[in-house]
Amino acid sequence: MAERIKTDVCIIGAGSGGLSVAAGAVQMGASVVLLEGHKMGGDCLNYGCVPSKALLHAGKSAMGWDAAHDHVRQTIATIEPHDSVERFEGLGVRVITEYGQFISPKEVQAGDYVIEARRFVISTGSSPLVPPIPGIENVPYETNETIFDLKTRPDHLLIIGGGPIGMEMAQAHRRLGCEVTVIEGMKALGRDDPEMAAHVLDALRDEGIAIEEDAMAAEIRGKAGAIEIEAKDGQVFKGTHLLMAVGRKANTDKLNLEAAGIEPTRTGIKVDASLRTTNKKVYAIGDVAGGLQFTHVAGYHAGVIIRSMLFGLPSKQRTDHIPWATYTAPELAQIGLTEAEARKTHGDKLEVARFDFAGNDRAIATQQTKGLIKVMIVKGRPVGVSIVGPGAGEMITLWALAIANRLKMGQIAGMVAPYPTMAEISKRAAGAYFSPRLFDNPMVKRVVGFVQKFIP
């Protein structure tokens, strides 16, 4: 006989979003049950953001292969307690280490438990997408869930997929001594501004990484240590190991959504602006909600639904203020519209302010002058920002604040940054927007000349 539990909130999945909801809800007085059938912390801690950034750091620091993987494991181990069963039980959350599946619109079964809740939250995340390329079933390959466990260094790593995961892993492994070939069916880093992406791709090619674009994989063949990928145009790429990095798929298979009256989509679960599913008792957040697939988005979603679930207040998600970054060297960061998107949306109303890192004194002093910021501006407000260069992922946060709060360029220009800092680059970009208005404006010069005649 299954044990029945009644609770205010039942969360399925203990990744970033689920943990944020659990911690917030229980500390505000709600009773919370958290279900996780695999690892606490989800993909980000165990297979994604944390190990990938640790491996990138190891490559930059010229660690050996074994030392690099020790660093990855130690990094995960250091963060693990924050996401652990013990910590969340200490907060008052009932943690059940089983997968959850719906058995009715208001009940979920997890192992020997049936949970009835006022509200459910699906935060099951996503998994690596492995497309059905002919031959893939006969060849060993890695994904982001296995690549960090390789015991020995690959002689030549083939990577299918030129997005952020593929490019980060390409650079990390190249710096750890591997030959690397990236095979991309369209354009590498194709989601980003092409001008900015070119800075990254040039830098990676300079490090000896082969980046093959417009090379759609048509067949994979071979065996461990001797793998071949043939593209549709007949090119053949040879290597010893293969990493599949072509994208992600939402984790919905175990949920039995139909029993709960929840409608799936091609990319995950159908949600409205408040992140409610077609079952109004159930929310979906993070990757499984079918939108932007970033850890910080899952955390943001958690805040959106807590306002609605716990306080009954209207709360809707927005996406225009969500930044993202690729942590290669140089880093590549984006928020809002790219230049091409902004031109398509706003036409002649768009202005673009640019500033080169080479004009920043701190960049000159630290030999970090290869970089660029572009700010897309409409009626005095930024609608998008693209940054490529050292620390771009840190710099984009100022613009996330600006766009989230609909600040104007004058407020950015009015900021005083300590000298010399890379943060001045954003202020100088705002200055580049105002300079033509002040220094190339005949009316301004006439007014100044007139006023000077009357100032004692």
Explain what the structure shows.
- The protein has 456 residues and is α/β, with parallel strands linked by helices.
- It has helices spanning 16-27, 42-46, 49-60, 65-79, 85-91, 164-175, 194-206, 257-260, 295-311, 339-346, 361-365, 392-404, 409-413, 424-439, 442-452, and strands at residues 3-12, 32-35, 94-96, 101-104, 107-110, 113-122, 126-128, 156-160, 179-183, 210-212, 217-223, 226-231, 236-239, 241-244, 248-250, 282-284, 323-326, 331-336, 350-356, 372-378, 381-389.
- It folds into 3 domains: 3-40 and 84-127 and 249-311, FAD/NAD(P)-binding domain; 136-246, 3-Layer(bba) Sandwich (FAD/NAD(P)-binding domain), CATH 3.50.50.60; 323-439, Enolase-like, domain 1 (2-Layer Sandwich), CATH 3.30.390.
- Helix content is 34%, strand content 24%.
- Strands 1, 2, 3, 4, 5, 6 and 16 form a 7-stranded mixed sheet that branches. Strands 17-18-21-20-19 form a 5-stranded antiparallel sheet, with helices on both faces. Strands 10-9-8-14 form a 4-stranded parallel sheet.
- Strand 8 (156-160), helix 6 (164-175) and strand 9 form a beta-alpha-beta unit.
- Helix 1 packs parallel to helix 9 and helix 3 packs parallel to helix 6 (164-175).
- The longest helix is centred in the middle third of the chain and has 17 residues, at 295-311.
- It is globular, with a radius of gyration of 25 Å.
- It comes from Aliiroseovarius pelagivivens.
- Its cofactor is FAD.
